[in-house]
Amino acid sequence: MVIETWKKSGIATKFPSYRNSSLITAKGWLLGKQNDDEAEGLWRIYDGIYDFTDFIKKHPGGEFWLTESKGTDITEAFEAHHIAIGPHKLLSKYKVRDAKHPRIYTLTLHEDGFYKTLRERVREKLKTIDKSPQRKSDLIHFSLLASIFIFAVLSARLNSLVCLALAGTALCWTTIVSHNYFHRRDNWRMYAFNLSLMNFCSWRVSHALSHHIYPNSYFDLELSMFEPYFCWVPNPHIKSKLMRYLSIITEPVFYALAFPLQKITRIIFSLRHDNVMYWHDSLPLSIPLAIFLFSDLSLFLTLRQWLFITMIASFAFCVIGLNAAHHDPEIYHEGDAHREDRDWGLFQVDTIIDRGDLKGSQFLVLTHFGDHILHHLFPTLDHGILPQLYPILYETLDQFKGKLRECNHLVHLLGQHRQLLRTEPNTKPPGADD
Ligand code: HEM
């Protein structure tokens, strides 16, 4: 099969088939992966085919991960989600045969490569690390969650715009902090993510399994779901000149509507059987319920108040999230020249720029997607303990010629917009002048 030049991926031998569909959804991404991944209807890890059917219910991380990933290549997801040695030892029990065809992903995870060297050092470090910041993360999460309801009710009772803005801000930050929790084994805090009108199950696919594993590539659902409206891939085949400039002008409106739009599209896709709705999709209703019960607003005004809170949260979430770490002309995107060393961990480093202005504040890191490189490399670790891993990260980056880049929010905002306009791929690979 001949792949058109612009469709050639820097991390795989195939152009992902989900991108050929007019409907970009989490379910479509999984179906496309089942079609592309040469996993023979089971689970693929490196060149082995595994049958985890009997393990799904026993999986300590929860049933979701294995149920949803059946029929796909889970090599990188498996490696990134298990720092301890135990899960790796379990694998041989479930192996059924060698795969018939080579892996489509060209990123590597060699034992002496960057990622596995770093992970071994982290595994050792975790034995002596101070875990108390995890309790602070839990406290921050709970305080923000409570603030949503307190300020939402106060905004109605006092008719206060300040309280309305605070309720929206609390909702935005709760959503981001809850993301710290849905990457891990099932826990109650991940449900708070859904107050935003989005759904953590959908995000476990689009964010944890797609974006985290294949950032800034054709396989990254968090790129494709915005196209052609926002397109960060430097590729004129995907973004027209008109769309490039139009998206920048109209983005404030899109930012404010992003949360409600996700809910509406998910409901429409569900009616077409292209999406699943869960019982926990109804959790956001707890906000208008609290307003209605504890104030004297009518039902119509309650719903209006809720919509305003959600739109403020949506706007703030997009300003933070879309300008958090991934889009700048200096950062690798699909089509750019890539470094010779194809290590998966170095690929993560090359697709991220950290927000240096957040460092040192656990609150800011948790509420603004901070310490992003370490979070991508070890998504199951609490953000509170990540700072203790920097000495190991720097040491390992030096050894493998990787570079941790940093910038502040303003620089990132400007860089993200320059990336929206960029259509020419970078010809100099990351690490070339190191
Ligand atoms: C798509 C693939 C998979 C994903 C995304 C995934 C995800 C997870 C997550 C999020 C946790 C909880 C980590 C935490 O909260 O600290 C976990 C734990 C665990 N998983 Fe998986 N998993 C996957 C596949 C597997 C497979 C194939 C096995 C078995 C061979 C496995 C065995 C385990 C074990 C034993 C634990 C407990 C580890 C511990 O407590 O140290 N997982 N997994």
Topology, element by element:
Elements: H1 26-36, E1 43-45, E2 48-50, H2 63-69, H3 75-81, H4 86-94, E3 95-98, H5 114-125, H6 133-157, H7 161-182, H8 200-211, H9 221-224, H10 241-271, H11 286-294, H12 299-321, H13 344-350, E4 354-355, H14 362-367, H15 372-377, H16 390-400, E5 406-407, H17 409-421
Parallel strand pairs: 4-5
Antiparallel strand pairs: 1-2, 2-3
Helix pairs in contact: 1-8, 5-16, 6-7, 6-11, 7-12, 10-12, 11-12
This protein binds protoporphyrin IX containing FE.
Protoporphyrin IX containing FE (HEM) binds at residues 52, 55, 59-61, 65-66, 69, 74, 77-78, 81-82, 84, 86-87, 90-91, 184-185, 380.
Structural notes for this entry:
The chain has 2 domains: 103 residues, Cytochrome b5-like heme/steroid binding domain (Flavocytochrome B2, Chain A, domain 1), CATH 3.10.120; 327 residues, no CATH class. The protein is mainly α and 434 residues long. The two termini are 37 Å apart. The model has no long low-confidence stretch (mean pLDDT 93). Strands 1-2-3 form a 3-stranded antiparallel sheet. A two-stranded parallel ribbon has the order 4-5. The protein is globular and about 65 Å long. The structure holds protoporphyrin IX containing FE (HEM). This is Cytochrome b5-related protein. One of its GO terms (molecular function) is metal ion binding. InterPro entries: Cyt_B5-like_heme/steroid-bd, Cyt_B5-like_heme/steroid_sf, Cyt_B5_heme-BS, Cytochrome_b5-related, FA_desaturase_dom.
